[in-house]
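stuck on this one:
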Amino acid sequence: MAMPRRRKRPEDVIQRAVLEHLRLRAPRTAYWFHVANGGGRSPIEAAILKGLGVRAGIPDLIVIYAGKTYGLEFKADGSKPTKLQLEAQDAMRVAGAEVAVAVGLDAALRQLEQWQLLRGRHES
């Protein structure tokens, strides 16, 4: 019996590594989460979620710390943000959030360090 093929999700690998760094290195009072907007949905379920306030293009990771909101979109090498992601990032910036796109793990860790959301420095 053949095993079902799993779709490769390199951005998930990056995100899991970043979450481990946050767990070990983030300020104690930082709060972070992932908005589970992705994945396949039936048209009815999608309409219900949209009616409840789900918005397309939200960054993969949201961090709240010291009265500021940060959004970080993870991309694997060769990937770029979609039009909806860029629009969401622009809207979040207008609302006062810090938002960035990180291509690869090293870029993600550098961005979080720049925002002072990780103590110490990551050496690649």
Q: What stands out?
A: Residues 10-25 form the longest helix (16 residues). The mean pLDDT is 91. The longest strand covers residues 68-75. Residues 10-114 form a domain with the Trna Endonuclease; Chain: A, domain 1 fold (CATH 3.40.1350.10).
